[in-house]
Amino acid sequence: METRRWTNPSQPQTLQIAVFLLYANAVFGLLFQTPFLLFGILGFLVVVAYAAGGFGVANDQNWGYVVAVAVSALVLVATLARFGVALGNVINLMFDVALLVLLLHPQSRNYRQIWFK
Question: Which of 24, 59, 86, 106 has its CA at a distance of 20 to 30 angstroms from the CA of residue 114?
């Protein structure tokens, strides 16, 4: 029987933290209308991609990892292009960079190559 889970404690710490950040970005995107949600339907798709990427990574799926990296990189580039590094945007920028670094960390990539389907 195949099980679905929201988190996976058997994954390395880098991926576990990335999953939590993906879920947190999805929730905060819905609750606080972060800057990328100014684009309407595109913003909603970004929130859905965050949640789907986190769920896919937690369930050791390649598509989840690809979605998570793609949406993280897209939001980081969009944030830098739209706002630059303003003082009020530094914390948001730090979390975007941290998420992408966690997903692209060698430990995360090695785990993905071995265990993801």
Answer: 24
Q: Which tokens hold the place of 27?
A: 């929730």
| Cβ(103)–Cβ(18) below 8 Å | yes
Helix and strand counts by DSSP (H, E) for the chain:
5, 0
Give 63's contacts (C-beta < 8 A, 6+ positions apart): 56
Closest CA to 53 of 95, 76, 25, 91: 25
Note whether 21 and 99 are within 8 A (CB). Answer: yes
Residue range 7-18, pLDDT digits in tens: 888 889 999 999
Q: Would you state the pLDDT for residue 49?
A: 95
Tell me the pLDDT tens digit for each residue of 30-42. 887 655 545 677 8
Relative orientation angle of helices 41-58 and 13-32, to the nearest 10 degrees? 150
- Determine whether 117 is exposed, middle or buried from the number of CB atoms within 10 Å of its CB (0-12, 13-18, 19+): exposed
